[in-house]
Amino acid sequence: MRYKSFLEHVEWLNPKIQGWRSYYYTAYSQRKMMKLDWYITQRLARWYAKKRQRARWMSSVREVRFIANQCGLKTLL
């Protein structure tokens, strides 16, 4: 999966995120949705760090959030 671009991952994830949000979102589920948003960001940061051959993925989180906003990644909140 490292050969795919960030935009291709976002295009693949957006319908799934929209479906999760439509099905599971309630006023009481915001904390769970925040955890799922963090999990998605974390997994993208790990993938991005591996793609860029970096040893530490936590330093990529800020960059991944910026790129995700630029590419139009949807959130669960």
What would you note in describing this structure?
By secondary structure, the protein is mainly α. It has helices at 6-24, 30-51, 61-71. It is globular. The model has no long low-confidence stretch (mean pLDDT 91).
Helix content: 55-70%
- Rg from alpha-carbon coordinates: 13 Å
The shape is globular
Order of helices and strands: HHH
Roughly what is the average pLDDT, rounded to an integer?
91
- Count of strand segments: 0
Structural class: mainly alpha
- Low-confidence spans: pLDDT under 50, at least 5 residues? none
User: How can the largest sheet be summarized?
Assistant: none
Number of helices: 3
CA(first)-CA(last) distance: 27 Å
Strand content: under 5%
Q: What's the structural blueprint in terms of helices and strands?
A:
Layout: H1 6-24, H2 30-51, H3 61-71
Helix pairs in contact: 2-3
Keywords:
mainly alpha, 3 helices, 77 residues, globular, 68% helix
Concise structural overview:
This protein has helices at residues 6-24, 30-51, 61-71. By secondary structure, it is mainly α. The mean pLDDT is 91.
